[in-house]
Amino acid sequence: MPQKNRTLKGVLGGLMGLVGLSAVAGVLATAAVTPAIAIAGVSGSQALSIFENLPDSLTPGTPMEPTVFYATGTDGQPFELARFFDQNRVPVNFDQVSPLLYDAILSSEDKSFYEHGGVNLGATVKAVYDNIRGTSSRGASTISQQFVKNVLIQQCEQNVSPGDKKYAEKLNACWSDATNAVGSDGVERKLQEMRYAIQIEKDYSKNDILLGYLNIANFGGQTYGIEAASNYYFGTTAANLTLDQAATLAGAVQNPNRFRFDKPGGSWTDGSGKARNSAEDGYADSKFRRNYVLDRMLIDGKITKKQHDDAVALPITPNIHPSTQGCQAAGQQGYFCQYVKNVIEGDKSLGADKLRRGGMSVYTSLDMRVQQPGNEAMTKYAPVYVEGKSFGTSGVSIEADTGRILSIVQNTTFKDTADANKALGETGLVYAADYAHGRSEGFGVGSTYKIFTLVEWLKQGHSVNEALDGRWQLFTPFTICGKKQPNKDKTKNFGNNPGYKGTVMQFTKASLNTGFYAMAQQLDLCDINETATSMGVHYGNGKPVTEPEGPNDLAPNGPFATTLGSKHIAPIQMAGAYATVANNGVYCTPRAIDKIVGSDGNDIPLPESSCTQVISPEVAATAAYALQGVMNGGTGAPANPNDGTPLIGKTGTNQDAGTAMAMSSTKVATFVYAGKVEGPEYKLSSMSYKGNAMNRIRYNVSKALQRAADDIYPGTKFTTPDKNLTRQVLKDLPNVVGMPIDQATTTLEDAGFSVQVGTPVDSTLGAGLVATQTPGAGQVPAGTTVTLSPSTGNPPAANVPNVVGAKFSDAKKALEDAGFSVDDKGCNGGSPVTAQNPPGGSPAPPGSTVSVVCIGNGH
Known about the structure:
By secondary structure, the chain is of the alpha+beta class.
């Protein structure tokens, strides 16, 4: 096998290499005594030239540190939600480490640390010689050199992306290349360490180098730095380490994965396949190494003989405190955590590298004062899973005027691993989010999508008090992107309601499908979806709602999808839309991060977000005016917490397999979905959980979330609606008196009025004809209900004139003029009338006889 070419620049080989190294040694000897000497000024030695040609500048930089997510607790204070790391490290200051640990490290690794200039020359020359011979791969490194080695390993590891398919392999190469190189590679590595160590000693204090080494060193597995090691192995801090603990950890740094003592089954396996350094053998390797450290401390006079003997007598006693990373540690808040994680990983300026290595403190918008009541309601009302059904419930609350996501609750158990059992309700999918932020693709939101028809209706200048024919019928054609398109399908109303003629206010309160079809028929359906887009809505898969959702979506702008909400949308997007109406038409991008602080203590720019006026304040205020009716006696009333906070809202049902509830105060918007997640259809209305109908889960969970939000983020009254958009629209009411009832009804309905038939009345008109209409013909509000009274065919009764006291001649004339006959009972022309029957003022049929009695007629 051919041997690698060796050059004096890269390595030293054979005798010439050793001769050259001796020249370097002379320079290094001087450097060891006087670190500040400018090595670059010396000339005349080939070996020195070799040394000088190596890089001489090393900037340690910031080691990998965990990123920690924080949330607001029920006490209003921040608490740790989760952490992420490739290397679990908690940097500490110099005075946060026990002096026992410093003594242990220095005695065992570099007792002359505070005297040398970064290099132990004699030992280094021997180590280089051994490397050339291939008899050793390490040794003789000072703390400064070990610090350099760890910095170089760290820099190598930081260049390996967590997404690399050969991630673990490349990380191992970083370690092995820096620690196990032999022969020529080992010489070059050792020379480079020396070069950097001398530079480091010039640039940093001894204490800084020692602390830097302890903060960067590996202590086995993903545990890095003395503080994390103290926490992990002993459940204590670096400042509170006992003597035997300090010696044990100091001993581990030489070969951390061999001397780690967190694996009862053994940290390594010998050539025979036997597990070593296990609980069974009392962690013999770790104990041997610990005792070596204690011996060195005794020799150096750092501890007394009694301290030494007492510590040596102790067994290795791990007290492992695993540092769980990832969103699994967040429990019920795992779905919110996962949303934030996806935001960071998907951001170009942040990404997975900074998440796992950047040492960021991420302060999220999660507020447990809202989240916890939602968790409790979810536990009480929604099952974790339904056997044989793919069932999910998700709720989200968003601060309307900022877009801050205050809560994400979900019925399932968070488990973002390959062994998650969907049948038992385990999943890592965030149902509240779209695919980019939660790997979910949204749900059919049903009639909650009607908000966009309402808003577009108002944008076109229509009034919420305008009346339309919302009766069950075939609505056709519709305008789609400027073209008239025929419609073949009739929509249905909940409970087979036949519909009615009414106002937009009435249609909204009752969520009448046919009423909204009547509205949509006067609009362009593409404009409705454009309005939805402007209010932050897109499909769960990320596509615009104006385009096909998938290959089987043939009518994305058709009346059913556009008006009744068969589109699959994530709850967060729908909550943002309702927040837009509540926020006077200003749409704020949903965001889950309030602040990010880097490991250097400086703020890091947040992922992009904004607040933009997307609909006019007048339209928003009037839409809110109509949507308040939903919560006050309308379909959303069961979800109203009735805490005095004004609310807007809208219900939604999608094919009886999914239900939704949207509501918002002026401050916080809430959206809850409960129903089918995937797979075959089923009827939610026929299912129950703990005695409660499952199609009412949406009410109970949303009520709990909104009540909590109203308490912490109190809303105010909504803005007064626009006068023009609430105006009464007047129409000409035709005169239908004398028409047959059927003809009159058709005439009025064709003119846009509702009709009801009242009680028949006597009239001179023929039976069945309209005798009266109320109101009468003229200008009346559009949508007015007209009452028609049919004729009985009988003339109406007339009141009998009162003729008592009148002369008989005058009385007779008055009665006959009124259409009555007179029985005079012998009265003559001048006799005064003393009595009459029927009495004056009483009704009597036309032509009937009135009897009168006069003075002087014998009575």
